[in-house]
Design brief:
By secondary structure, the protein is of the alpha+beta class. The chain contains 4 helices and 9 strands, in the order E-E-E-H-E-E-E-E-E-H-H-E-H.
């Protein structure tokens, strides 16, 4: 199970990579494994400012549809264009090419409330 040390995590299995005031959000390797083959990603929140834990989109796999939640509050600047053509990129590279949204973080103090790698591993039993 891949759980990179450089990211922060949520109890709902999203990750956040912080680059200054910009953040990249995706779902974890554990989440994509639980979902199975991802067939569709729907994100219609580009340009919106959302609060921490608000739904920013849905992800559809062969066996289920799941909401995706903002790890921190922020403005959705961009949706990963690769997801439209190849949603399975999330299965292949959840921490790299399979990112979901790029955001401008509105409250950096919320980052400290996220799970560390160790705490996320404990959550998933890794």
């Amino acid at each position: 199970m891949n759980v990179p040390e450089t990211l922060k995590y949520t109890k709902d299995h999203e990750w956040l990579r912080v680059e200054g005031e910009i953040g990249y959000v995706g779902i974890t390797d554990f989440a994509q494994g639980e979902l199975g083959d991802i067939v569709f990603v729907e994100i219609e929140t580009a340009g919106e400012t959302l609060k921490k834990e608000e739904v920013f989109g849905t992800i559809e796999a062969v066996k289920t549809v799941s909401d995706m939640f903002m790890p921190v509050g922020g403005e959705v600047l961009e949706v990963n264009p690769a997801l439209e053509e190849s949603p399975d990129v999330v299965n292949k590279d959840p921490y790299g090419k399979g990112w979901m949204v790029k955001i401008r973080i509105t409250d950096p103090s919320e980052i400290e409330l996220l799970l560390t790698t160790e705490k996320y591993k404990a959550l998933i039993g890794a």
